[in-house]
Amino acid sequence: GTGKSAYGLNLITNMIEADIPCMYFSLEMDTVSTMDRFMAMRTEIPVAEWYKTGTEIDPLMKILDDTKEEIGDRRYEFVDDPTIGLDAIQHLIREFKIKHKIDYACIYIDLITQVKEFIDLKTSKGTLATTIEMAVNRLNAIAKKENVCIVAIAQMNRDADSTRINDLTQLNSLRPTLNNVKNSGALGERSRVVLSVFRPKYYAERLFPDNDDVEFMPD
Is the full-model pTM beyond 0.70? Predict the structure, then answer.
């Protein structure tokens, strides 16, 4: 709920503007929800506005059509498949590169730990941590073989939920570290760069709902 997918889509929006070929594999959000957020970012019109009805939606449809036409020839692709595996991901990456006559692309996978090889214990005949480590190694091999950058969107564990703080000045103690990557350190160990999404106001609203200062916090 802190905005992992929204942050990833924001990066994609800017990559499209920079003419960087990119793919987004969505295993968690459906296509409609993804496109609603994507178009809201492209048009800078809040998502809630897209759910109006009747004649209220007419002006927005014109903006939507113009936006679709503007980015119609850009090099990007969305894939919505909650059960996809690494073989299929690699195959679709190759198809994307052939289609657009490119040798490089940036690949977003959201959430990485829902990819089949990351959760199927039969592949490692061991623990979940071993399974994820083997999957990460294979993901790394795909990145090298296909000459792509893979942005693996993952969850953090719930350690912050059990950390006790007494006031707003202590919110930074909830900021995640590499050790908070959920289920496995292999993701962090094999990554070249790790970005974490941290919104103090997200926690402030949950922990201090009666504090009037929360309303004025930047988010």
Answer: yes
